[in-house]
User: Fold these one by one.
Assistant:
Number 1:
Amino acid sequence: MSENAIGIFDSGLGGLTAVKELVSLLPQENIIYFGDTARVPYGTRSRQTIIKYARQDAYFLLSRGVKMIIAACGTVSSVAVGLKDELPVPFTGVVVPTAAAAVQATRTGRIGVIGTSATVNSGSYKNEILSRNKDITVIQQDCPLFVSLVENSFISPDDDIVRLVVERYLQRLKNEGIDTLILGCTHFPIIAPAIQQYLGDAVTLIDSGRETALYAANLLREKHLLNTAVQPGTCRYYVSDTVEDFRRVAEIFLNRTVGNEVSHINLEHAHI
């Protein structure tokens, strides 16, 4: 079973930041990624719909024989919290490892959280932070346009549109004097340079994709599920919408082409 793939899913492409970090940390591991690009975004959906989609995504990955599932999606991790108890393999979302890293990083006890509307409204990051240290002040802000910016390749800190949207969303957090900011959506690290430029170097950015990859690597190690092969692992990508659009944006996330590694899958007709 240790040679089986790690399964990762997201509502779209943001989870590729976790894929990139996992490849860097565990180059020998095989990875299967599912991006539900036909139904993105999840962040504006109802709780019931998010849970339904998350369950379908997870069971699709199980049908591919994965040894672990990562919900590399802040929205799913915040809303579909019961999914972990349903699955026969180790599971993690992004909230627990990311909140833990933020609590460890803050010096002043003022942490900002940005994410989709569903993530922020769920209070998942805030609750997890306060469960670790009740004296921390958490300031939250939903930033729904960040996802659209990234998926349409508006990512440069020198782009006027990017700068204006970043300033509009983050001005309140800057005024509140946060010293740590959770990037609570796996899309957001792609525009981290613009966020850092606006907030200044004194603010520590916590990348949910990286923290989740680190947590997953430790979990695999504890469960004795690490792949012991010496050759590099493979990455296979599945999407529910057009392959061409995924290939184009995936290059931004992964800094490489994905070519024939991508396939289209219709979850309604998938054998799961």
Number 2:
Amino acid sequence: MVALVRAMQTGGWATPVLVLANDPDAGGLSKARDMGVPTAAVDHRDFKGDRAAFEAALTDALEAVRPDILCLAGFMRVLTADFVQRWNGRILNIHPSLLPKYKGLHTHARALEAGDTLHGCTVHEVTPALDDGPILGQAVLEIGSKDTPDTLAARVLPLEHMLYHRVLKRFVSGDKSLLSLRDVNFD
């Protein structure tokens, strides 16, 4: 989130209008406020067993600021088809694997267990199916012989920070073509 906000603020190609979290104690909220971005929280725990009410509260918070695009960054809640359809074609997500491999959780461990030699991250459009939307960008790294799930996660994270805002900038301008590591200068 911080990398996205910083890129938008310094580049001027988009304006962050809200950072919305599902946990009122999320560290990103204070970081966003420090960056001058309005914040809100809709605590999912207040809606236990009622996803429709939780998503209605999310929608109310979002509609109050009328965003053009929603960027999921560390939002670890599965969104229903109804919510996704409401924002169809306007939600992006970053996922720590080379989709379509390893949808869901524990991607780094799964890549290691499979004996993969390459790993990375993917920015995709969100659809009702989990981690299944059109792929807009990927960044790839080689898995080292001494990598663990934790070291691999630490190595993928900077790629996520570099890739996501580049894909978002293109998406804002209407470019949905695939952006890959070879197309990006990560210096």
Number 3:
Amino acid sequence: MDYSIVIPVYNSTQSLKELAYRLDAVFSNEIRADYEIIFVDDASPNKETWLVLEQLSRERKNIRAIQLMRNFGKQGALMCGFEEAKGNYIITMDDDLQHLPEDIPQLVREKEHDVVIGHFSRKSHSLLKKILSNINNWFETKLIGKPRHIKNGAFKLIRAEVINSILKIRTSHPSISALIFYTTRDVVMAEVTHAKRAYDSSGFTFEKMYRTFSNLIFNNSSFLLRVVAVTGISIAILSFILGIYFIVKKLTVGIPVPGWASTITIMLFLGGMILFSIGILGEYLARIINGIENKPAFLIRKKIG
């Protein structure tokens, strides 16, 4: 199989048949390669969604439909699709036709790279969603080493070797972006069009945005723990310095309030020790989290002989 198109589905109905038809036109007429479509229904409350997917999978041999037992979120649905994909290249796209199938050749032209991300020069999103997207991109740059010039997005082409490496990393709260940039730095962008949503309303609510962002912060980085650790150790050092300052001041020029110097010194010392201990524990917890996620020490791209 040359290509696997993995499409998470949530409550969509009208767009699915058109999406399958347009994908067939692109791969039959332009790319001319074997391909499969894997629809992953993320436990859509709309019962018609699964009925449409069942019909499509019966009508077309190269379409597979998977239904999850409960709603795991878009990242979980993508991981499920990755497990099932058989292609040498995996393409991820949304189910709402805002990612145009006709733009897939733009991604394919850059397929010598590990990952090709579809970059929208102009997005058909609300102002709030654009702001949240920019915030998420900034955090990805700081936390997972994403190059600043790379703008992330859900429309991607990924080599199977990268997908296989991602699947070795077992985590119950995956962030596809974090896993990609942990696995490889050979990531480029291709210019694509962001179409307006033609059918249904968006199922990607603020709650789901937060879930995706929290997966990045809490499960794929130790950022907050390290902030606590650095803050605790910094305040501890400052407390020790202040304690020494008050002791020296008491012994040299004196402090008019009896017992004040000893009281404040003890408080600063104890507070500093507590914060220092919290900082050390935070550092240990960060390393434990990295170990529990079972991230391998190295990843093999090729073997010869």
